[in-house]
Amino acid sequence: MRGAGGMLEQVRGAAPALDRRLTPSRMAVAFAAGCGGFFLLPRMPEAWLPWLLAAAALVSLVAAVPSGPRLRAALVLLAVTAAGALWAYADACRLLCAPFPERLAGQTLVAEGRIASLPEDRGYAHRFLFRIEHLRHDGEPAGFRGLVRLSWYDERPALPAGERWRLVVRLKPPHGFVNAGGFDYERWLFQRGISATGHVRDPAAAVRLDAGAGGYRLARGRQWLRDRLAALLPDGPAAALVPALVLGDRGGLTPAQWEVFSRTGTSHLIAISGLHVGLVAGVVFLGVRWVWAWTPGLARRLAAPRAAAGAALAAAAGYAALAGFSISTQRALAMLAVVLVATMAGRTLRPLSGLAVALLAVVLLDPSSVLSYGFWLSFGAVAMLLYALGQRLAPPFVVVRWGRAQWAVALGLLPLLLFFFGRASLVAPPVNLVLVPLFGLVLPAVLVSVVVALVGGWAWALWPIAAMLDAGYALLALIAGWDLAGMTLGGRAAWVWLAAAAGVLLLLAPRGIPARWLGMVFCVPLVAARPPAPAPGEAELTMLDVGQGLAVVVRTAGRTLVYDLGAGWPSGFNTGSAVVAPYLRHRGISGVDTLVVSHADQDHAGGLAGLLADLDVTRVLSGEPSELSLPNGVSAEPCRAGDEWHWDGVTFRILHPPGPGESGNDASCVLYVATGGAGVLLTGDIEAGVEAGLVATLGERLRADVLVAAHHGSDSSSTMPFLRAVAPRWVWFSAGWGNRWGFPKEAVVARVRTLGAATADTAVDGAVTLRLPVTPGPLSPSRARQVEPRLWRHRPTSLPP
């Protein structure tokens, strides 16, 4: 490193003209580009890559010495870019070069390690991070160490952070749903350094080995504070909001509450980030500077701004520690430290140079932060403020200045928000225009109240704050119900996003730039363009990845049918709102024409409430309509064999049940979908008896090119007579990877292969999509895990035993 640094100094000193080209901004951007470019790779490269990157950096520096100024600058920037990629490789290799062995997935293991986070009490389970130090399988070392995410169900003891335990666990590699428009859980785990997920298998066999905090004293202290706050706070939204604002512990917030914050554009107020750290630092800076300036003895020894900057940096670091030095607080602290250290050193940073140095500090601290949406939104917000307001005279009125800043951030980040999340809140700008200034008073009041309550043991000190937060949340919940709270756009082509970005930059450009109104024209495609829909007579079939459940979307030229919605869990998480609705929004679909809930089992109907809360549904059909939990004003009709309808040249026909009266799996609606070129059979959870009845009644009329296997591939279904009658070219299975039932069963897969049919499986492939043609032809489905390969993506080859 010393030799490389010396060579770089020699290169810089060789030509003064080089200094003008190698600004801190360019160097920082080049390093960050190297980091970001590495994470664009579809998979972890071979071990020779770091040697190649190091050689490229060294060769570039050597070649730069005798080169002309321009080429010399380009070569040095190339070396810096290679160094950034090398730094990202080293960070990723910690997780991906020694991953959790797939052969151990689903096996009973004995793990020794320490609790590495604040456990989240979900009611039905505790969820926490566990740092495995030793792992054994059948008494033999398993050769794995790393951070895992565990759930402890049933009766469970108190779990102080840092305690060392021996636990009997079952683990699996980081595996999540893979669907267009959906949350990338595998990326989320990768960013946090989590190598596996699982649960405590035998709570009675758990042994506490050491009650000390080990290296997790900070987490232990934060847990003590959280428990004290829980005892002092009254029931209500504030019981979850105060720990979130003080400790960065958002485990108490429900999915419904997160939806309120998302629809009102106020999620950033709850997650401790730059705003919170900046507020604390700003209050301390102003207070210390005022006191210091009015104390002559102190002011003579050290300038008030420098003393205030040091105190503000210490306060910001302390608040970040309270938040557990989460990724967002690390990023905020790094950005703030650049400004405060420059103030302490008596240096004046140009805004762009300061932003560039902060960028460099963040990617040095955590290269994978470039994968975080917060990273782009944080730097994007600052960049938009500098671009829109940095070169203009400030208006005389504070309200006008604040309004212009909010307009610049809201408009500037709109394309990013829509690109990342598929929707944005139109009420967010006015809501934040009011709430962000108020938050500058609320956060200090919350922190002071917490200190008073904890030090004095006076619970009453928190009551006014709790009442205020409860009232504020109630108002946000009311606003979240407005139609303007959610604008849905997704699935646009790349050129649409580029045009929108150019349009926003033009709209926010200085007044001297001519024809700024053309920015509106560039933004039109963002609203007017639509994701491509099937042509008349065609249909698009997508079996979504919902884990151990089923959800299928059938689109025609102008209509949408959803067949089943996946599961729901006691935590409030359900695949209707987490998978199905985001996918539909991504495809530009704002409502469902017909929803078929095959039957009332929770792995098929568990997402019903979530979808109905997110999107309009015109008609609901079900094999067990009376067993569904439906909101007021929504009713379900029974599926009846023989019912048929046509959309855009596509036929939909119900084959089973004959009418009300069936129950359980055999009540499942069996739906046949046909275009002129292909047919699909959706079977729910029907079992062998219903299959035999359909064969006897319909015979060759059951023939379909694609069969979505009944009951996730259970051997109580997909009998050989039924498979022969359907004669599918493709059999699709919807199952969770590593599910405890072993679906799809080997016997079923063997029967399918005997017929010569090809298979697809959401557990291995993610979401599976197929275009059903107008005329007969080859059928080639796309698989999401292959269409969107990512460095961090789990690539299962088969189901574990």
What is the rounded distance between the termini?
Answer: 48 Å
Structural class: alpha+beta
The helix tally amounts to: 29
- Describe the largest sheet: 8 strands, mixed
Backbone shape: globular
Beta-strand proportion? 15-25%
User: Mean of the pLDDT scores?
Assistant: 88
In total, how many beta strands?
25
List the quaternary state of the chains.
single chain
Gyration radius from CA atoms, angstroms: 29 Å
Fraction in helix = 40-55%
Strand order of the largest sheet: 16-15-14-13-12-11-24-25
Model regions low in confidence, pLDDT < 50 over at least 5 residues: 1-5, 10-18
Tell me what the structure shows.
The chain has 801 residues and is of the alpha+beta class. It has 29 helices and 25 strands. Strands 16-15-14-13-12-11-24-25 form an 8-stranded mixed β-sheet. A 7-stranded mixed β-sheet has the order 17-18-19-20-21-22-23. Helix 8 (238-247) packs across helix 19 (463-480) and helix 17 runs antiparallel to helix 20 (494-507). 45% of the residues are buried.
Summarize the structure.
This protein is α+β, with helices and mostly antiparallel strands and 801 residues long. The chain is 47% helix and 15% strand.
Summarize this structure as a short list of keywords or feature phrases.
801 residues; alpha+beta; 8-stranded mixed sheet; disordered N terminus
